[in-house]
Amino acid sequence: MINATIGRYHIIEELGRGGMGVVYHGHDPLLDRPAAIKILSQQLVGNPEAKERFLREAQGAARLNHPNIVTVHDFGMEEGLCYLVMELIEGSDLRRVIAEGGLKPEQALALVPQICEALQYAHGKGVVHRDIKPENILLDSQGRVKIADFGIAKMTGEERDQRLTRSRAVIGTPQYMAPEQLERPLEVDHRADIYALGVVLYEMLTGELPLGRFDPPSARLAIDLRVDEVVLRSLEKAPERRYQSAGAVKLDVEEIRRTPAPQAATGPEREAASGVATGARGSR
Q: Which domain holds residue 205?
């Protein structure tokens, strides 16, 4: 596809590949601006469900106009190919940042409010992302968060969404999925995204996933113990015990960033605190 044209868009170079297709750096000659162009994999072109999910990615993102969500500009079909045109994010993704050495705690906490703002906005529009993970959290050249890939998003109240959900036992990335997303997919609501956010925050802080019986972040690094509370509350197995909104997570994280940390426990006191805070998650 390099140097090819699809619709009015010129393909320049490949940016990455995923399960649904390939993303290219492209150019829109009409508006004279760069673009990210996602083309559905040719192996999936004949799959009606895959094509419908690809369209839903466009529809889900197109209904969202927020500075922390990747903007969709266009969608089309040409010569059997489905393509989605989005704003091009000049930067990286959170997966790459973590792999290259991770983030300092203060850097991780600075990203959380932006993620929360995007999720709170999407949830208010009836959209549940269902696949929040580092790969889908982009960072532009100014360090601003951009949530991407609404390909498996749930549109609240849509009968078509229930049909697509029934057709596939597991929708999402298992390591980041809330228990109800694995066990009762039709019951998933916005709180599944909050659970995934808890996994992402833990991974940003420690570089590891919270699998099995896991230590709280404070057992691995010098950090405000209130961060443990945010992580563990986000990772509650029962949705009703989690934060009930992304906005509530944002408020708690902003309070942690704004106010001095309580006196940290040391020695036996710290070990006791860590023991109480230890969480448990099923292995994936």
A: 91-281
CATH number at residue 135: 1.10.510.10
Model pLDDT for residues 6-54, shown as the tens digit of each residue? 999 999 999 988 878 999 999 999 999 999 999 999 888 888 888 888 8
Q: What whole-number distance in Å separates Cα of residue 199 and Cα of residue 83?
A: 31
The β-bridge partners of 139 are 92, 145
For 268, phi and psi rounded to 5 degrees? -60, -35
The reply to whether 193 belongs to the active site is no
| Set 131, 149, 161, 252: catalytic member | 131
135 and 200 part of one domain: yes
Enter the pTM of the model.
0.88
Do 77 and 189 meet the contact criterion of CB atoms below 8 Å apart? no
CATH at 76? 3.30.200.20
Report yes or no: 235 and 199 within 8 Å, Cβ to Cβ.
yes
